[in-house]
Design goal:
Helices cover 39% and strands 13% of the residues. By secondary structure, it is α+β, with helices and mostly antiparallel strands. The protein folds into two domains: 123 residues, 3-Layer(aba) Sandwich (Rossmann fold); 95 residues, no CATH class. The strands form two sheets. The chain has a four-stranded antiparallel β-sheet with strand order 3-4-6-5. The protein has a two-stranded parallel sheet with strand order 1-2. α6 links the parallel β1 and β2. α2 packs parallel to α5. The protein is elongated. It binds iron/sulfur cluster. The site of iron/sulfur cluster has 12 residues, from loops.
Length: 246
């Protein structure tokens, strides 16, 4: 797993080489010398300059971007088939973010690992992912290929997210369209659709019962009563069907 904040995720009292090699010592039978050699190769792979020399450096001697490279080396050292990257570029400025994303894309190809990439940034998602799952209130709201999600979003929450992105060539006086309201209190989650309090398409059923995931196509699913043939109330819910595409 690659954690969000490289500034606080590394142990300040251990050298970065020791922290990268630690997973090998725990999960493999490599000797200390072999683990050190492999950790240095991994640091080279994540483009740490003079990796053999930097092996004995401490985290405070590295910049934020370099620390995130070390975190990536730690995550990949045991050659996992799946890496979970939890907002790995949130704490970095945009130039370094771009470098880290390029590195992750290259490593994914080189190491043939799959990546579950968690982010709030839809532009990063668009550049990194093949399939997207949009989550809200602990539930999957929509699941689609990257093309389907951006060209034909089928859930009111996804639509709200897409509409709230500033467009570079938009009129400077144009207002952004935020999603009104706040996320639900997950200590006492709502009974029905978690998005109901903020949804302009919400109907009575939405506050009572959580909608099922509906197959919009073979590769596209949406959790919304607007799509359900068997919504537990008749009439107005069905009239709204298709409104999400409006
Ligand atoms: S189920 Fe109802 S409240 Fe939830 S997104 Fe669909 S229309 Fe809106």
């Amino acid at each position: 797993m690659i954690f969000q904040d490289p500034m606080s995720s590394l142990n300040p009292l251990k050298t970065i080489g020791k922290q990268v090699a630690e997973a090998l010592e725990v999960h493999t039978r490599l000797s200390a010398a072999e683990a050190r050699a492999k950790a240095i190769r991994m640091l080279e792979l994540v483009r740490i300059p003079e990796a053999a020399k930097r092996y004995d450096s401490y985290p405070h001697e590295f910049s934020g971007g370099m620390r995130q490279r070390v975190m990536i080396a730690m995550a990949l050292i045991c050659e996992p088939s799946l890496v979970i990257a939890d907002e790995p570029t949130t704490a970095l400025d945009v130039t370094i973010q771009d470098q880290i994303l390029k590195l992750l894309r290259a490593l994914k190809r080189e190491m043939e690992s799959a990546i579950v990439f968690i982010s709030h940034d839809l532009s990063v998602i668009a550049s990194m992912c093949e399939r997207v799952i949009v989550m809200y209130g602990g539930m999957i709201m929509e699941e689609a290929s990257i093309e389907e999600l951006f060209t034909s979003p089928s859930h009111p929450y996804t639509l709200g997210l897409l509409r709230s992105i500033p467009v570079i060539d938009q009129d400077k006086d144009a207002m952004l369209e935020p999603i009104p309201g706040s996320p639900p209190d997950m200590l006492s989650p709502p009974a029905g659709c978690p998005f109901a309090a903020r949804c302009t398409h919400a109907r009575a059923v939405c506050a009572i019962e959580a909608p099922p995931l509906h197959a919009v196509s073979d590769t596209h699913r949406s959790r919304c009563w607007l799509w359900a043939e068997d919504a537990p109330v008749s009439g107005n819910v069905f009239k709204e069907r298709g409104a999400a595409h409006a």
